[in-house]
Amino acid sequence: MFKKKLALFLSLVILSIFLGACVEKTEEYELKRPGNRQFVTIATGGTAGAYYPLGGALSNIFNTIDGIISNSQATGASVENIGLVSSGEAEISFVQNDIAYYAWEGIESFEGKDKIRNIRGMSVLYPEVIQVIATKESKIEKIEDLRGKKVAVGGPGSGTEVNARQILEVHGLKYDDMKVDYLSFSEAADQIKNKQIDAAFVTAALPTSAVTEVTQTANIKIIPISKDKVEALELKYPYYTHETIKSGTYKNNDKDVLAAAVMAMLVVPEELDENLVYKLTKELYEQKEVIEKSHARGKDIKLEKALTGMPIEVHPGAMKYYNEKNIK
What is the mean pLDDT of the chain? Predict the structure, then answer.
């Protein structure tokens, strides 16, 4: 997909010339790519997830900036996206903040590899909530009740799988204490509906379509995490926060449920032009209504939270904008 990037951009350049959209300089910086245009590719995620429509909205915003040609691409999400930014195949990537931390430190999904330090944070966006769903028949009321049960913990090497392992850890549980299946969201949903598993971990924005779908045909409940366990998780791992799954988020979800969460964020290459990143960050927030119209999660993106849960160094171009807005 990304190997076709140059051909796609050349086509866009020809189209822009045909339309007479030839702008050599913006107000704040001179573009440094061929034809005095800056190409901005945004790596998102699967077409069914939140990253994909949000990336399309970002691309629409950036295409309003003189001299910028932007497009968004469907990808395998966080782990793949780190590599795309690090290798220069994408200018912006959506990732979970815990995955960015693992890449920076060379741990978990990046164990045994060189630390990826040529990436920088652009903005933290919104919470990705770690939801533990269970069938009513399982009689699971708390995380400790997962002992001895059949539990889906996410796909092998996925962010969800690491989240599941770390949450179990603070509860004194290990995979050996239960029957673990490494299943994607959709696979876990099917197996819960068919009563092949008792519970599943799902890390995603609220409401999650896979969970909503399950509630239409299966009687499930959302399992809370206690306040002291969330605090223990946040103390041990710098990328965690907490979130409340509000009553009514899902069918039969009739009370608020406390959950752990990581954050969706934007990552850019270290070497990306400072003035360019400043402009992209500024337009992200000054045209945020475009993002809000593209997906419900757009309303959760708040300037005052742009650095909350940031696990890696911030790009100086983005930091320049945050300093102007007094964001700490």
Answer: 89
CA 290/CA 292 separation, integer angstroms: 5
Domain regions of the chain by residue span: 2-126+264-324, 128-262
Class of domain 2-126+264-324: alpha beta
β-sheet bridge partners, residue 243: 259
Percent of the chain with pLDDT over 70: 89
pLDDT attached to residue 39? 96
DSSP string, 300-317: G--GGGTTTT--SPBPHH
Q: Which CATH superfamily is domain 128-262 in?
A: Periplasmic binding protein-like II (3.40.190.10)
DSSP 68-80: EEEEEE--S-HHH
Task: Let me know: does 274 contact 320? Beta carbons within 8 Å.
Answer: yes
pLDDT for res 185: 84
Place of tokens 């100086």: 316
Q: Which candidate, 262, 50, 26, 310, places its Cα nearest to that of 162? A: 262
Whole-number pLDDT of residue 262: 96
**How far is Cα 262 from Cα 155, in angstroms, rounded to an integer?**
17
Q: What is the pTM of this model?
A: 0.81
**2-126+264-324 and 128-262 share one fold:** yes
